[in-house]
């Protein structure tokens, strides 16, 4: 079954986009099914049906291909308005191209700086998977072009926090490779697209353009919240409040006893949308559910979807998975653990793990389900307190009595773990001398 057939079966199975999103959130529709297609979910929720997701608007599974055509035509206009000045690069640069007539070398100093930044970032994108971008110049050129256009569209000379920021290329890259995996092969005849209209979603020459549209929709609210410094500080404060309300003891241990400012490590979790913590394959599973949940919970007074809503709850649960190890560790060990989340079976290299922390197992479906459950009760203090206590105890494997740790925390296993971590630290220090 190819991806067009998968899409056709999916469209026949669910009567509305909202039904499909509900199935994604509940895990009824998941990658284990023979007819699952991620591109369909992402392109319905973030492109063709994006502005139809308000609760008061009817939702149907009839794909609006005119929206797809419109977004692709808009991208083409952007690319003509903001040509990438490849010819301003050094001639020995692998991305250098001959001077284009539309590029004025005397008025593009700022554009050259933008391009050089993007080239530098994309040359090292996902180094554990060099065939995706590092060795594939077409993919790299497409992502650089798309991010250059996005930067030009979102660059405010009066706001130093606007425009592209490092890390955005990883988000765009993960979107793009997810769509590339399901795109149709080159050379399909026009009759095929006429016979199978849904195939328009999988056209290979539009993959980077659709990736741009998805990225642009995601960044509409994520960029101001997570990439602008003042706003990120506010988001960090909100996270600390949530973390404290969920597990006061653990929060105080990290922030008061060890004096670790949450913003030091939280910035990567937020700005990279968990890519570094979960790895590529687990992150796309998480995004599936975040996109679907966000689509279902779009408010009447907004034209855009709030993708950041679940992230703080997910992060709290991920940190809780580390609780038995963080409570047994000291400042430098805990900070290292937070910055190098030790998830089991991550599909990136776990480089330089000096401390040999025990890898944690994360069930993505359960993780997002519990995050949603917590978010649904956050406005009811009593219910949230009861629920969060149960969830925290289940994720950490530790019992708490109010703000004090249960005696089980000081068990022989706990003390053994603390001793091993301290010995590892001592060995590391001796080897570095």
Q: Low-confidence stretches at least 5 residues in length (pLDDT < 50)?
A: 401-411
Please compute the radius of gyration using only Cα atoms: 23 Å
Strand arrangement, major sheet? 1-2
Number of domains: 2
By oligomeric state, this entry counts as single chain
Mean pLDDT score: 88
Spatial separation of the terminal alpha carbons? 59 Å
Question: Helix share of residues?
Answer: 55-70%
Order of helices and strands: HHHHHHHHHHHHHHHHHHHEEH
Coarse shape:
globular
**Share of β-strand residues:** under 5%
User: What is the SS-derived class?
Assistant: mainly alpha
Could you give a short account of the major beta sheet? Answer: 2 strands, antiparallel
Total count of strands: 2
Number of helices: 20
GO molecular function: GTPase activator activity
InterPro entries: Rab-GAP-TBC_dom, Rab-GAP_TBC_sf
Organism: Komagataella phaffii (strain GS115 / ATCC 20864) (Yeast)
Protein name: Rab-GAP TBC domain-containing protein
List keywords for this structure.
433 residues, 20 helices, globular, 1% strand, 2 domains, mainly alpha
Can you put this structure into words, describing what you see?
- With 433 residues, this protein is mostly helical.
- It has two domains: 3-222, no CATH class; 243-432, no CATH class.
- Helix content is 58%, strand content 1%.
- The chain has 20 helices and two strands.
- It has helices at 3-13, 17-25, 38-48, 65-81, 109-122, 137-153, 168-180, 190-195, 207-227, 229-246, 248-257, 262-271, 275-278, 280-296, 311-321, 323-326, 331-339, 364-377, 381-396, 412-432; strands at residues 400-401, 404-405.
- The chain has a two-stranded antiparallel ribbon with strand order 1-2.
- Helix 2 (17-25) packs across helix 14 (280-296), helix 10 crosses helix 11 (248-257) and helix 15 packs across helix 18 (364-377).
- It starts with a helix and ends with a helix.
- The model is unreliable at 401-411 (pLDDT under 50).
